[in-house]
Amino acid sequence: MRLSIDVDLDYCFPAPADVLLAVEVAQLPDQVLIEDLLTVDGATGPMVPVAGEDGIGRRTWLTVEGGLRATYRAVLDVERTLAPIGTLPICPLVQLPPEAIAYLWPSRYCESDRFEAFVDRHFGDLSGGARLLAMRDWIQGEMDYAPGTSDTTTTAADAFVARQGVCRDFAHLMAAFARASGVPARLTSAYAWGLKPPDFHAVTEVWLDGGWHVLDATGLAPPEGLARIGVGRDATDIAFMTIFGSAVMNSQRVTVTRVDD
Amino acid sequence: MRLSIDVDLDYCFPAPADVLLAVEVAQLPDQVLIEDLLTVDGATGPMVPVAGEDGIGRRTWLTVEGGLRATYRAVLDVERTLAPIGTLPICPLVQLPPEAIAYLWPSRYCESDRFEAFVDRHFGDLSGGARLLAMRDWIQGEMDYAPGTSDTTTTAADAFVARQGVCRDFAHLMAAFARASGVPARLTSAYAWGLKPPDFHAVTEVWLDGGWHVLDATGLAPPEGLARIGVGRDATDIAFMTIFGSAVMNSQRVTVTRVDD
Amino acid sequence: MRLSIDVDLDYCFPAPADVLLAVEVAQLPDQVLIEDLLTVDGATGPMVPVAGEDGIGRRTWLTVEGGLRATYRAVLDVERTLAPIGTLPICPLVQLPPEAIAYLWPSRYCESDRFEAFVDRHFGDLSGGARLLAMRDWIQGEMDYAPGTSDTTTTAADAFVARQGVCRDFAHLMAAFARASGVPARLTSAYAWGLKPPDFHAVTEVWLDGGWHVLDATGLAPPEGLARIGVGRDATDIAFMTIFGSAVMNSQRVTVTRVDD
Amino acid sequence: MRLSIDVDLDYCFPAPADVLLAVEVAQLPDQVLIEDLLTVDGATGPMVPVAGEDGIGRRTWLTVEGGLRATYRAVLDVERTLAPIGTLPICPLVQLPPEAIAYLWPSRYCESDRFEAFVDRHFGDLSGGARLLAMRDWIQGEMDYAPGTSDTTTTAADAFVARQGVCRDFAHLMAAFARASGVPARLTSAYAWGLKPPDFHAVTEVWLDGGWHVLDATGLAPPEGLARIGVGRDATDIAFMTIFGSAVMNSQRVTVTRVDD
User: Fold this and answer.
1) Which residues of C fall within a CB distance of 8 Å from D154?
2) B46 Cβ contact partners less than 8 Å away, ≥ 6 residues apart
3) What subunits make at least 3 CB pairs under 8 angstroms with B?
4) Is A114 close to B158, i.e. CB distance below 8 A?
5) What is residue A233's predicted lDDT score, i.e. its pLDDT?
6) For an interface test with B, which of C58, C105, C112 has the most B Cβ atoms less than 10 Å from its Cβ?
7) Looking at residue B191, what is its pLDDT?
8) Is residue B261 very low, low, confident or very high in pLDDT (cuts 50, 70, 90)?
9) From CA A240, how far away is CA A201, in angstroms rounded?
């Protein structure tokens, strides 16, 4: 499907600050950019592009002071064949490539080492991708999607106790469950067609059968309409804007439109 | 039933230290002491008795250096009519007496405020004591009793994530669930007839129908054979020995024998 | 000095809730109430008074739904002779009365067990109350009073790392340092003459020479103008309003005026 | 200098387990391997080499059950010109290459976002590498090297509060301070000539003047005698042995000898 992405960010920086923007859609085999343009008004220096984590996607360094207005427009074709995840095998650990190994480890927001007994008890009888689907379904069934109940310090274990959170928390918990079960998992930021209200979205990718496969534990948007931005170990790596300094948000708007209907 | 309690503690203190011992059985209506004797060998000052938390039971201050050998012997009659907890009403908050209110609050090891959504979702349809019994049954069903998997820093939320622990963790989780549901709950240390292997035990007391009622979320010992020592908000309050300094344990032995068979 | 206290609380409760208000000035030897009146508009049941923690002061249970308007007016004489804290002896542990022992323990927001090495290294050479004053001075020198940098989940250790917080955090850190050093310490809520902007205040009381003595680690208000409300192990115990349910604050105002000038 | 490394690991695995060994010295410009050999006795499958994090060094996957005996022998020349760190400039954020950016972020054991106010207050007046040296000196001055006081769950903030720990904790704190100050920092495992008692060592590398520079906040071994194994965000990435399953250590020995004297 062809998607049009529109993003408008309007922020104010009371003092000079460096900002790392990660809003650009990654050029990937299953999501082909037709055109995109990042426009920044208010930067006090040049825009400096820098590759995303794992070499996926692109980020942009800015130096700012005072008002910052950033707009991003993209048109892309998403042509994604969803694999039958339930039937995919889990890779033996000893066959994992180096780029997947780092995603086995517990991380700040995905304390997978704390979930081993739970995961073994609840999902240990399932094998292959079916185990991952059962984890996703458990999260959808047991967690309430409740904006305002978590913040940027909330970990997967916190969300597991609280039984509520937002996409970030659902994605962290999914990644923690997968890693606790010996399956590499990473966080992915994305634009999501069909997400209501529209916003930056976070999903999980799990390593099955030698490749990454998206699982959206929120179930709030169809995976065939995701336009991925970047990946990382957890939310820290994939923030759409990292501010070295302080800022006030005036407004922020994300729009994802299907344009081939 | 008539119980005989024998405790032997053999510790070594490399430097002068103060010690608060809480090993003496509390004199209470449902557990009547026939005789008891605490003997300490190695103290460098007088033994100073001090009331337990909430005025329940008795503790003893010691000053020690070098070897400490403490023995405690008691004989008591436990005559406890177990209330039909499932049928008891939960007290309205506004009728709680001051001594119960402190046991409503979250505490260090019972972070009840973090469990509100979980408790509401899983037990919210049940009323009265039946809700508390369902919590106890959930803990027995979902937690593994596994010595060595937790330590003195483990909280109820930690244990809830890990799904394993010892009596202390089970009691903390039970108290956290109860408080999250508006029911005062406290931790109680006890000698437990039938506990294998014998050791100091920790259980939970919940405030129902105007009084405290024991719930042992481990299910490892019959409540009619408990000889309570002291109570408190969580494990910190009810430690059988609090050491202000450092110590090495040489040996420690607890024996609980029924003597009226 | 004679103080006049005026409090206005205007809240909205979208659903029925129980509320524990702790805003009434405690009647104590060093603060003598001339008159006080708590008025509540919007309660759906009777106001139920209940003693404060440790029998100090008074709290009031309310049942509410919809708007709640509570006003509290008091006039009192504060006649407090401030002890020369720096010269007071620290009580030997074995002489502590039962009511002080609970304030030796680490609590949720005052993790004193984690500060032992720091306290020993920085304050271990000082004895008696001078050690406590040095702790207070360290906190005043190293911490920034910065509203908005902490929240209700912030512990003393969190504040110690962040080096910023509000009165609650300063009081927690003072209590944690004291307890880590073998001195019982409790949190105290108070109205504070001279505090700018006026608000509910939190200070620390330490047990020296057989009694409680106020230390205000913020240094923002003179101790001779404090009108204490209640005490407890940490912020949980002394919240001016504990809500069992959810609420929206419309407005809240505290005024403390000296009326004998 | 020429170093000879000898490692002997003797473990027992009661059930089948996967193990990732990271004990091999990395081939790098400043440490040239003359020879090395990893020998494993007791593996139940082939040894599978896999690159280290960031492409530095090499790790080895093993599948094991029962006894495992691993020995590693290496001879290498360390020819390291130590840069005058105090004079090196800190790179502007916008010029950081992608491989350094991930080391700016807070991580599980280096919660740099929590240290910003402290770092600004204590080191904010210093610029360039002198700021990093001051951080290292602060850690050496304020922290006690005390084996047994921390464990694998201890974070930089925990160690900062406790004021004690081992090399892992010192390295985490150094990395957290650096990142809090806008300087990328990573953890590095190494063999350390002169370390007493000999053991696997952990140090910090900071990104200054376009390259990585070692800082050993413990001061326990000279940087010119370090033989680096691997790098990562924190201790999780650089563990010398990661066990997917359970194991018992029988014995473990590390020897580092200078052989060109």
Assistant:
1) none
2) none
3) A, C
4) yes
5) 98
6) C105
7) 98
8) confident
9) 10
